């Protein structure tokens, strides 16, 4: 597979900057806070970061409404702080991906302010506009009445996020831009310029937001959008061969095979394999059989494994936290699976201690039901659970008020904690080539109405049982890692084992 070699051993840690660590007591996490916690990330066993957008923004969608792609949001610090983060991370062997939002900007972006003017200018076609104030973009949400320009503009997501114009697959209206028109090309080049800017400063690549949304009116295969990415990523790789790109796409047949991303998230889509593994009512990790997960996953894996990596996620800033769906015992088994299946895994900050989803919180910065997964990291007992020295009322979001809220320092002391279990597992992963992203994978056992899942990675046999009953595996061999009980071939309730295959 022709992907950056470092991805073979990469384990990512996703950080929501507002909520990780506040270094200056203003209640909001910041870049210097992340710098102070790099050794924690390293010690945990993660060697790569993905930072959610940390750019200047009105924060109507948690920073996914970018006002200046090349400026760190003042509340997070300065560009120099971020450059220092790159340097210090690299000294520890940690790579850093930033979040690229190519499909839309904030409605406050200077490009958009220019684009909305009545007079033609360089940015008139940077966004998708119709040619009459009351004519909308059919099949897409749009806004009228806000600008001097005689037209309406298409939205990509919230009202504050006008869609950038990469052109239309098929032009059927006079106001639509062909894909090869100079204006569409200019948008693409502007995004290449943003990527080049950060890559030159030391960032190691990008997580790409809504990567499949660029060309409007694309076919079901997204063939035009895929071709655009293939070209753009190729251009970046010629200059930055070590850079890595992960798509928010959720369909590796397109993202990896056609669009040429290195990684694609296995996202939580209704009824897909990830949903059936972690989140559906009949999810495998709740103790059901693994068939629905295995069937979907094995198929996608086979189709895409020559091209790139599928990325399992513990969760992300858009999903309820994984701890919401299962018992703490099942969560350990879940982590064991997510970090021993093929591909490049992503851990959402706080999931390593089983932080809770605080579903009752009022919405913050466009978070809505996502807000409860964005609360401050819980470092220690005491003031603000170690997140900030500021006043509790000033915090970005309140910390988990539960008496038994898990913390890093609490779990560090407990050899059996989720944190220490995960650390041991990641240590093993890094020391075992068979467990790396590109190590081979075969399902050995997955049957209807049976919670036992057995799979092989190279010379290792792995078995999981997230149910509350013991199962007979018929397996033997030396256990190199174990959660729960494994004796004489019987895997206890909520247990997991990695065995060296017999010679
Ligand atoms: C992606 C992000 C999400 C954001 C949306 C619009 O799905 O993960 O947080 O709201 O795109 O940019
Ligand atoms: Ca701060």
Describe it for me?
By secondary structure, this protein is an alpha/beta fold. The protein has helices at residues 31-36, 38-44, 79-91, 110-115, 182-201, 223-239, 252-255, 273-279, 291-304, 328-338, 408-413, 418-431, and strands spanning 12-15, 48-51, 55-56, 68-72, 95-100, 142-143, 153-154, 205-208, 244-247, 263-265, 309-311, 346-348, 442-446, 453-457, 460-465, 471-472, 478-483, 486-487, 490-491, 495-500. Alpha-D-glucopyranose binds at residues 61, 64, 101, 157, 209-210, 248, 317-318. Alpha-D-glucopyranose is lined by residues 61, 64, 101, 157, 209-210, 248, 317-318.
Strand order of the largest sheet: 11-10-9-8-5-2-1-12
> What is the alpha-carbon Rg in Å?
23 Å
Ligands present: alpha-D-glucopyranose, calcium ion
Q: State the helix count.
A: 12
Name the assembly state. single chain
Low-confidence parts: none
The total strand number stands at 20
For the structure shown, list the relevant keywords.
25% helix, 503 residues, alpha/beta, binds alpha-D-glucopyranose, binds calcium ion, 20 strands, eight-stranded parallel beta sheet
């Amino acid at each position: 597979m022709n992907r950056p070699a470092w991805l073979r051993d990469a384990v990512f840690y996703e950080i929501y900057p507002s909520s990780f660590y506040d270094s200056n007591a203003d209640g909001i996490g910041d870049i210097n806070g992340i710098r102070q916690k790099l050794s924690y990330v390293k010690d945990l066993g993660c060697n790569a970061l993905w930072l959610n957008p940390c750019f200047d923004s009105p924060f109507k969608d948690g920073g996914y409404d970018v006002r200046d792609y090349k400026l760190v949001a003042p509340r997070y610090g300065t560009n120099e702080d971020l450059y220092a983060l790159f340097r210090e991370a690299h000294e520890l062997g940690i790579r850093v991906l930033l979040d690229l939002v190519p499909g839309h900007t904030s409605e406050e972006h200077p490009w958009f302010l220019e684009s909305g003017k009545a007079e033609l200018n360089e940015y008139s076609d940077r966004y998708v506009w119709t040619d009459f104030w009351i004519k909308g973009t059919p099949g897409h949400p749009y806004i009228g009445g806000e600008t001097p320009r005689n037209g309406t503009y298409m939205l990509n997501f919230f009202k504050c996020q006008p869609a950038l114009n990469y052109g239309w697959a098929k032009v059927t209206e006079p106001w639509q831009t062909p894909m090869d028109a100079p204006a569409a090309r200019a948008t693409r080049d502007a995004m290449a310029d943003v990527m080049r800017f950060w890559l030159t400063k030391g960032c190691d690549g990008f997580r790409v937001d809504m990567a499949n949304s660029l060309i409007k009116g694309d076919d079901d295969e997204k063939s035009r959008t895929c071709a655009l990415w293939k070209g753009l990523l190729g251009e970046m790789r010629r200059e930055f061969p070590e850079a890595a790109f992960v798509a928010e796409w959720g369909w590796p047949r397109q993202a990896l095979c056609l669009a040429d991303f290195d990684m694609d998230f296995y996202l939580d889509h209704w009824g897909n394999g990830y949903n059936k593994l972690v989140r559906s009512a009949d999810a495998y990790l709740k103790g059901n059989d693994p068939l629905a997960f295995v069937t979907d996953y094995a198929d996608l894996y086979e189709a895409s494994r020559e091209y790139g990596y599928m990325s399992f996620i513990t969760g992300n800033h858009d999903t309820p936290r994984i701890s919401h769906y299962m018992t703490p015992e099942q969560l350990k088994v879940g982590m064991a699976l997510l970090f021993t299946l093929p591909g490049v895994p992503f851990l959402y900050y706080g999931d390593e201690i089983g932080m809770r989803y605080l579903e009752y919180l009022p919405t913050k910065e466009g978070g809505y039901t996502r807000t409860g997964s964005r609360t401050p990291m819980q470092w220690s007992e005491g003031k603000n659970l170690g997140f900030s020295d500021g006043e509790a009322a000033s915090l970005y979001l309140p910390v988990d008020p539960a008496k038994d809220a898990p913390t890093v320092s609490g779990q560090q002391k407990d050899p059996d904690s989720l944190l220490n279990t995960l650390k041991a597992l990641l240590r093993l992963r890094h020391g075992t080539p068979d467990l790396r992203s590109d190590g081979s994978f075969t399902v050995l056992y997955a049957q209807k109405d049976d919670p036992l899942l057995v799979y092989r990675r190279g010379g290792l046999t792995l078995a999981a049982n997230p149910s509350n009953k013991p199962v007979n595996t018929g397996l033997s061999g030396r256990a190199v890692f174990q959660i729960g009980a494994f004796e004489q071939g019987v895997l206890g309730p909520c247990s997991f084992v990695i065995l060296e295959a017999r010679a």
